[in-house]
Amino acid sequence: MRVALGIEYSGTPFCGWQRQPHANSVQQAIEEALAKVADAPVRIHVAGRTDTGVHATEQVIHFDSPVAREMKAWVRGVNTYLPDSISILWAHVVAEDFHARYSAQSRRYRYVILNRPSRPALLHQQVTWVYQKLDHDSMQQAAKHLIGQHDFSSYRALACQAKSPMRTVHQINIGQQGELIFVDIHADAFLHHMVRNIAGVLIAIGRGEQNINWSRMVLELRDRTLGGVTAKPSGLYLVKVQYDDKYELNSPIRWPVFAN
Question: What pairing do the DSSP bridges indicate for beta strands 2-9 and 45-46?
Fold first, then answer.
């Protein structure tokens, strides 16, 4: 039986998604909890690996269950063994051809910026703080240069191992709610640090340090060393992984919720 799980987690206590020899990872915590419910080792496959400090409102994984269990066991039972920073949201049986990563059609991230003079206390490590006043209209105009299929070499980490830097960005929206600014990005897939590097460029433009054409100039350089600063991970959330409707996994986007 192949099972898909939807997972919510705070990335703050972890070294990132992927297992590491001498650090706690989200993957390790989930695999160990699944193994206790299955009473056998379980290997999981994830839609997208997130970095240290990056959060998810709905990450998707799949695994091949070594035993028969009701779906509620993969939710309530596994949650019993998980730390408070990770929660299984749902579990569904999926076809054998389903793969959390390779079956994904697109992904959505939200980058959350707290834009005010004083640093956050209640939202510490849940948002990225920028004390300079940001012009979100300029950020939106600059974001338009990144829509479509492009070589995003300037927007990926130098250590990125993706075979191709080509990605298709379907949409970038800059929204504002009080002191919060949201950068919502929807693409077929993302390169390592791609969202954080886009956010870093847009923040510099919003501060007035660069003009709105700088995002295009950076893109055309195809050289990460000439790009902008990588924005902090604390404001980044994976909010949706989209699949073909035949898998029956698509549901409304789970945006991170903040008080008005």
Answer: unpaired
Secondary-structure class of domain 2-103 per CATH: alpha beta
CA dihedral 247, 189, 59, 141 (to 10 degrees): -120
The class of domain 106-238 in CATH terms is alpha beta
Q: Which of 51, 64, 137, 244 is catalytic?
A: 51
Query: Which residue ranges make up each domain of the chain?
Result: 2-103, 106-238
Do the first three CATH levels of 2-103 and 106-238 match, i.e. the same topology?
yes
84 an active-site residue?
A: no
- Alpha-carbon span 196 to 107, nearest angstrom: 15
Q: Please write the tens of the pLDDT for every residue from 22-77.
A: 899 999 999 999 999 999 999 999 999 999 999 999 999 999 998 989 999 999 99
Cα-based torsion angle of the residue sequence 142, 145, 146, 152 in order, rounded to the nearest 10 degrees: -110
pTM for this model (two decimals): 0.96
